[in-house]
């Protein structure tokens, strides 16, 4: 049992490192006006294992923390909590909806949770309140989440087709 737990912790750590590395290497599009986080493709990995929930959440926290500390993330420390919570909720929802396969995997939770949370953050940062402009910000975030989520669907499909889903579980 101890070996399995160690493998799960290791798998979560590798996922966290991958999320943070992808995000930080692509920092110009991870933070700022464009904000298309390619690493959000990994938020669909919980479909394969609950271990991945902790990996993507930690990876997002690391990314948002580094972004806030370096000034790359204009939302600052608020995003460390709000953005990370959105990723956690998206990962949990992806896990819970894992058996519902529309187009390969449940790609809607990461789009919706991030559109609401990050859209609200951007709206507040731009206008000083949450107002009707929220819908424009949320729509933009949702559109920018779509490519990473489609990449995540492809990743899930590839892992399952190759029989590699057990790597995520830490088996």
Descriptive notes:
The protein is an all-alpha fold. The protein contains seven helices and no strands. The longest helix has 28 residues, at 134-161. The radius of gyration is 16 Å and the shape is globular. It starts with a helix and ends with a helix.
Distance between the termini: 11 Å
Please work out how many helical segments DSSP would assign.
7
Rg, alpha carbons = 16 Å
* Total strands: 0
Mean pLDDT over all positions: 89
**Proportion of residues in helical segments:** over 70%
Helix/strand/pairing class, anyone? mainly alpha
Basic shape: globular
Q: Which residues sit in consecutive blocks of at least 5 with pLDDT less than 50?
A: none
Bin the strand percentage.
Answer: under 5%
Largest sheet: none
Q: Can you write the helix and strand succession as a string?
A: HHHHHHH
How is this fold's topology laid out?
Layout: H1 2-25, H2 27-30, H3 51-70, H4 77-96, H5 108-127, H6 134-161, H7 165-169
Helix pairs in contact: 1-3, 3-4, 4-5, 5-6
Keywords summarizing the entry:
single chain; 171 residues; mainly alpha; 7 helices; globular
Quickly describe the structure.
The protein has 171 residues and is mainly alpha-helical. The protein is built from seven helices and no strands. Helix 1 runs parallel beside helix 3.
